[in-house]
From TrEMBL:
Domain of life: Bacteria
Pfam families per record: Glyoxalase (PF00903)
VOC domain span: 6-125
Name of the protein: VOC family protein
Gene3D superfamilies found in the cross-reference section: 2,3-Dihydroxybiphenyl 1,2-Dioxygenase, domain 1
PROSITE patterns associated with the record: VOC
Amino acid sequence: MRDANTVFHLAIPARDLDEAFDFYVKKLGCKLARRYHDRITLDFFGDQVVCHLSDQFDEEPQMYPRHFGITFSEKSQFDNLYKLAKQREVTFFRDLSTRFEGLIEEHLTYFLQDPSNNLLEFKYYYDPRMMY
């Protein structure tokens, strides 16, 4: 079972590390942990995302089957990131919407698109039992 000292790790392709840095650090507010000639390591909302320099990335991204992101337990955090992304003119793949309306798993969601076409989904469930 995961505890507070355990961090999830995800590696993703990045066509340009300066673009990745601008998107994740300057626009989303993630913390840069390390930078090497071929990758940057980020504190992505408490977990680790590593952007590896690569020429292999989706030319035409689709939400399914591959995306990643954060499910917020606090609506204010979800709302604050949405406002920040709008203010900083981050590319939205899909703007704010409601999924499964009227069902127990109803939630708010939006998708961002990074410069290497990685898709990031951010969610907030009204019922916290539905987070998993």
